Amino acid sequence: RLGEFLKKEVNLELSTLPDFEERVIDFSEVEQLMNSINTIPAPCAPVISPQAPNAATGTSLRVCWGLFSDDTVEYYQLCYKPVSNERHSDEQAEHTLKVKETYCTITNLLPNTQYEFWASALNASGISPPSERAVYVTAPSPPIIKTKKILSCENAALVCWESGNINPVDSYMVEL
């Protein structure tokens, strides 16, 4: 029987043409799902470190911060402004810096002045909440010695100076 079957000629042509519909498949939901799987979450808020000893000069401050998580961060946004009791002054303006590292040295600051700092972390998914705010203080300007008022005798000397600082200075160290 197999031999007889194989000897028969079989016509493989279809008698009617198939009628295919032209369908457009919407992959938008699948694409959204795939994109949500590959995205990274927005980072957590950074933590500003307190001012370190010797991290200030009269015109600059070195500010450091960190993250307590393994978040992916492209860069940080460091914001600062001078601390003042006055409202709406030009010196109250906030300044923002884009920083790649977890530290930054800010220059061109006023001597013996308090500045408030806070940071946020950014990546492709968004921006973190801001960190807590930390207050840093620049070093006072050196005093200006009044050379015309210097008096001395065998066992003593009188030296006068002016502070040169807007804000009060806690103490001075005189070296002989």
TrEMBL record:
Entry-linked SMART domains: FN3 (SM00060)
PROSITE patterns: FN3 (PS50853)
Record's signal peptide: none
Top-level taxon of origin: Eukaryota
Gene3D superfamilies: Immunoglobulins
Coiled-coil features, chain-numbered ranges: none
InterPro entries, alphabetized: E3_ligase_FN3/SPRY, FN3_dom, FN3_sf, Ig-like_fold
Residue span, Fibronectin type-III domain: 46-142
Record's protein name: FSD2 protein
Organism classification: Eukaryota, Metazoa, Chordata, Craniata, Vertebrata
Gene name per UniProt: Fsd2
